[in-house]
Design a protein that fits this description.
Elements (H helix, E strand, L loop, with lengths): L3 H10 L17 H19 L1 H18 L3 H13 L1 H21 L5 E7 L10 H11 L4 H14 L9 H4 L7 H23 L6 E7 L9 H9 L6 E5 L6 H15 L4 E7 L12 H9 L4 E7 L10 E10 L4 H5 L1 E5 L5 E5 L3 H20 L2 H16 L17 E4 L4 H10 L8 H10 L6 H11 L8 E8 L3 E9 L25
């Protein structure tokens, strides 16, 4: 939940001058020159990316011509030559077999995403702007300045009129009790899991690994224990409960499940990502702590992963990479999103003025690590060449920003708030369609914390845009401070699963969001 501040520090102020700065701003070039440059760059990309193929084609052609010119005497001489070198052939064959055996035994097991589901709250939990502000006024906890501040945040947030808040927040006065918080957690987690098990026809008894992440609500027994009890999961299940890790914890949970699937053969792993709002609503007048009230909404997801080879045929995606960046060693990064008490003793999540700059640094580190894993050779050569020129010859040369559109077909940027989506769109040079899923998820469901990247993927699926071998980049930020990425590859043309979050409203989107 903490990461919501990343998205909203700018959104609340309406300032476009603060944000993730990865590159210097550049003026638009002349149109004709930009068109020529586009085709030159694409041609260079295809040439370099297929360089090995282009080199092998002449060699294969020459070998084919040579073989076609051989007669029976030439073939007989070749056979005699091989007979005299039988020992060498046996040694080479043994080494080859040994190497292949070692590779097969030690290579990472593929991790498949069989399916996932996102919780869709009931309509009576919707919180339109007017009702939200009226309830905030009637609680009597906020002064006029704080009420006006919340109104401005909502107007600039990018949220629509159909987001959801928990039942306890609809009461006047609100009733944020432990029982109400448990009820919210159960409705979200069990709602997502019921749909997942129904769509996949997997029995809960078959689940061998369970990972649950929720930052700000960690009761005893744990949320993972609540799931074990509800579905009567088997006694030897490996269950984990991650807390306090912010909006990027969903990717961390996937990474943990991936590592466990490398150890435990032939099993399923379920990852449940959610956030709990009921007991973490802020009832004070510290403006930096009021922002999460305006952005965070009810939501959650459940993901089914498998390392079974026969699941490849029905799985939607294969996990390619997970890259995690942690800046917690830096004191400013550690405290930039911090749960604390205000002067009146009321608990909330405070946001540092350095938040967006810290997020930018974490993002830069993350994509620098991710780039060599996913970018085509052409982009890596351009980046490396400009880096060497800048270091050795001319310090004023602008660094080359790799084009991640050449590495990924779809982008799921954590829907933390309008500002962070704007900044990533600008600094990664993305097109509006690349951030459409993030903007529409924010508009329809608000900031659902670590589960938002799954609502975004569900949006892209509902639009029918996922094709076989497409690559999807999920990227999220979290308190601590963290920036985490997951890369998936589609195993087929993916259709949305039944009972999806966009099932009855996808035709209404995209909508125009006022500035």
């Amino acid at each position: 939940m903490n990461q919501g501040g990343v998205a909203t520090t700018n959104g609340g102020s309406g300032s476009g001058s603060v944000g993730v700065r990865i590159q210097q701003s550049r003026r638009l070039p002349d149109f004709l020159q930009s068109v020529n440059l586009k085709y030159v760059k694409l041609g260079y990309h295809y040439l370099i990316s297929n360089l090995l193929t282009l080199c092998f084609i002449p060699a294969i052609a020459a070998l084919s011509i040579q073989v076609s010119q051989m007669n029976l005497d030439d073939l007989r001489q070749l056979w005699l030559h091989l007979q005299y070198n039988l020992v060498s052939i046996i040694i080479c064959s043994a080494i080859l077999v040994f190497g292949l055996t070692v590779y097969i035994m030690t290579r990472p097991r593929p991790v498949y995403l069989v399916d996932y589901s996102c919780y869709r709250p009931p309509d009576h939990l919707k919180a339109p702007y007017g009702r939200f502000l009226e309830h905030s006024r009637l609680t009597g906890d906020f002064d006029e300045s704080s009420l006006e501040f919340q109104r401005k945040i909502l107007e600039r947030s990018g949220l629509g009129e159909e987001t959801y808040v928990p039942k306890a927040m609809h009461s006047i006065p609100p009733t944020p009790s432990m029982a109400a918080a448990r009820e919210e957690a159960e409705e979200v987690m069990f709602g997502a899991l019921d749909t997942l098990f129904r769509n996949t026809n997997v029995s809960p008894k078959d689940i061998g690994i369970l990972v649950v992440n929720c930052s700000l609500f960690n009761p005893t027994p744990s949320l993972s224990a609540m799931i074990v009890n509800k579905y009567k999961l088997r006694g030897n299940i490996r269950s984990f409960n991650l807390g306090g890790m912010g909006c990027s914890a969903g990717v961390i949970a996937v990474d943990l499940a991936k590592d466990l699937l490398q150890v435990h053969r032939n099993t399923y792993a379920v990852v449940v990502s959610t956030e709990n709002i009921t007991q973490n609503w802020y009832f004070g007048n510290n403006k930096s702590m009021l922002i999460p009230n305006c952005l965070f909404r009810v939501g959650g997801s459940a993901v089914l992963l498998s390392n079974k080879s026969n699941d490849r045929r029905r799985a939607k995606y294969k996990l390619i990479h997970v890259v995690r960046t942690h800046r917690g060693a830096d004191d400013k990064a550690f405290r930039c999103v911090y749960q604390d008490q205000d002067d009146a003793g009321k608990t909330g999540v405070s946001l540092s003025k350095d938040l967006m700059a810290i997020a930018g640094g974490a993002l830069k580190t993350n994509i620098t690590t991710l780039g060599p894993l996913v970018l085509p050779i052409s982009e890596q050569l351009l980046f490396f060449t400009t880096l060497v020129v800048k270091k050795l010859f001319n310090a004023s040369v602008k660094p080359y920003i790799p084009d991640f559109k050449l590495a990924f077909d779809h982008f799921c940027i954590h829907a933390g708030g309008r500002a962070v989506i704007d900044e990533l769109e600008k600094n990664l040079q993305l097109l509006p369609i690349h951030v459409e899923a993030s903007r529409m998820t924010l508009h329809r469901f608000g900031n659902t914390s670590s589960s938002s990247i799954w609502y975004e993927l569900a949006y892209i699926e509902a639009k029918g845009r996922i094709r076989n071998r497409n690559r999807i980049w999920q990227i999220a930020f979290g308190s601590g401070f963290k920036c985490n990425s997951a890369v998936w590859q589609a195993l087929r043309n993916v259709k949305p699963s039944s009972n999806g979050p966009w099932e009855d409203c996808i035709d209404k989107y995209p909508v125009k969001i006022s500035s």
